Automatic annotation (TrEMBL):
Keywords: ATP-binding, Kinase, Nucleotide-binding, Transferase. Residues 65-142 form the GHMP kinase N-terminal domain. The lineage of its organism: unclassified sequences, metagenomes, ecological metagenomes. This is GHMP kinase N-terminal domain-containing protein. GO terms for biological process: terpenoid biosynthetic process. GO terms for molecular function: 4-(cytidine 5'-diphospho)-2-C-methyl-D-erythritol kinase activity; ATP binding. It comes from marine metagenome.
Length: 236
């Protein structure tokens, strides 16, 4: 078996609504995800045992690292030989850009590329969902309306309406833990579900975008992120 390298693209949440806590402990979300050029690089090479090395010393060690766990899960579920994972980080940690999920998705895609009997796309997505809510999207990438706990994906295309949309990523050097952010949203969030579903402009926008087109002007009018006030209060 020869090795391979896979680019692990980050993503932007172009708006985010947290609709409620599920019985399985996850939250139902509604968002528009967009792949960005900023990316980590994952290289897989044959090895006597599963191992991981990263150029960033702050990245969690092997068994706690999502990329390592992705390889372990794939090899247990689909078979195959161990690999050494060389991870070059460029996506800031704790930035909401999905770096850990992107790395896990890249490992799954890489192992599937090397497999003698690769998994189907839906099987790979199922493995991704076991690792984290953003992993199924990161396996596919592109522009998608994302719902549920991240497992309901609808590919869409941009309708620029005469505008050219750009993004600017600024790293303030502050990390925000996803579990912490959810914990700060407060109790009673599950009670918002009906209200938001019926009247929220951003959710209405996503509902329309499911038809396949994302109008840029309307997005700019309704974009909202439930985590923004939470993070701004704690880290002004």
């Amino acid at each position: 078996m020869s090795g391979c390298s896979v680019v692990a693209h980050g993503k932007l949440n172009l708006g985010l609504r947290v609709l409620g806590r599920r019985q399985d402990g996850y939250h139902d979300l509604a968002s528009l995800f967009q792949t960005v050029d900023l990316a980590d690089n994952v290289t897989l090479t044959p090895s006597a045992q599963l191992s991981l090395q990263c150029d960033d010393g702050d990245v969690p060690p092997e068994t706690q690292n999502l990329a390592w766990r992705a390889a372990d899960l794939y090899l247990r579920e689909a078979g195959g030989k161990p690999v050494h994972i060389d991870l070059v980080k460029r996506i800031p940690m704790g930035a909401g850009l999905g770096g850990g999920s992107a790395d896990a998705a890249a490992v799954l895609r890489g192992l599937n590329r090397l497999a003698s009997r690769p998994l189907a796309a839906d099987q790979l997505g199922h493995l991704g969902a076991q690792l984290g809510s953003d992993v199924p999207f990161s396996i596919q990438g592109g522009t998608m309306v994302v719902e549920g706990r991240g497992d309901r994906l609808t590919p869409v295309e941009w309708d620029p309406e005469g505008l050219e949309l750009h993004y600017l990523l600024v790293d303030p050097g502050t990390q925000v833990s996803t579990p912490w952010a959810f914990s700060q949203l407060g109790r009673g969030i599950s009670s918002q579900n009906t209200v938001l579903s019926n009247s929220d402009p951003y959710l209405s926008f996503l509902n329309s975008a499911r038809g396949g087109r994302v109008p840029v002007r309307r997005l700019l009018e309704v974009i909202v992120n439930d985590f923004q006030p939470v993070v701004e209060r704690a880290k002004p």
